[in-house]
Amino acid sequence: MPSGTGKTVSLLSLIVAYQQFYPEKRKLVYCSRTVPEIEKALAELKRLMDYRASHGLKEEFLGIGLTSRRNLCVHPSV
To answer: Is 32 a residue whose pLDDT tops 80?
Structure first.
């Protein structure tokens, strides 16, 4: 599918709604090939949660982006 058609936000909307309805199922692992794609997904998640909050749906939700060894590892030789 072409970019810009809303695939990511559609997927995130469905998952967030499902997780709010079934609170015992609260983990999502979203994998992507590149760091910019993960950053874009996190930005979409932020926009989605802001939208939900603006419509009275205040929820506890944590989204964390984990990317490459270069960004995660504190060892100087890596």
So the answer is: yes
Q: Which of 51, 49, 14 is nearest to 30 (CA)?
A: 14
Give dist(CA 52, CA 72) in Å, integer: 30
Cβ atoms 71, 65 nearer than 8 A: no
Cα separation, 20 vs 26, in Å, equals: 8
d(CA 48, CA 57): 11
CB 9 within 8 Å of CB 50 = no
pTM of the predicted structure, to 2 decimals: 0.76
Residues 6 or more apart in contact with residue 56 via CB below 8 angstroms? none
- Tell me what pLDDT residue 78 has: 60
> Domain extents for the chain?
7-72
Contact between residue 11 and residue 34 where contact means Cβ atoms under 8 Å apart: no
